[in-house]
């Protein structure tokens, strides 16, 4: 949050586990801020993310999406 200055940010992690841990940590921080969550700009955005999270089969990722945090894995072969 300090480095993104209220804008979207990408965090690169070298492993899947690292990405999951970073996502969980950011999500918990954002969730603890309640309505001060810098990742949420409106209640409409929250509702959209809540609906989107329901389509995710990964329960851990699902709980993070509602706070505006997620991860993707890119594998280079």
From TrEMBL:
Domain of life: Eukaryota
Molecular function terms from GO: 3'-5' DNA helicase activity; hydrolase activity
InterPro entries tied to this protein: Meiotic_Crossover_Helicase (IPR052247), P-loop_NTPase (IPR027417)
Name this protein carries in UniProt: Uncharacterized protein
């Amino acid at each position: 949050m300090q480095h993104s200055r209220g804008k979207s940010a990408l965090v690169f992690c070298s492993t899947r586990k690292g990405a999951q841990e970073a996502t969980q940590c950011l999500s918990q921080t954002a969730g603890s801020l309640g309505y001060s969550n810098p990742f949420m700009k409106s209640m409409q955005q929250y509702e959209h993310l809540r609906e989107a999270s329901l389509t995710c089969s990964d329960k851990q990722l699902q709980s993070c999406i509602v706070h505006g945090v997620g991860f993707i894995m890119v594998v280079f072969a």
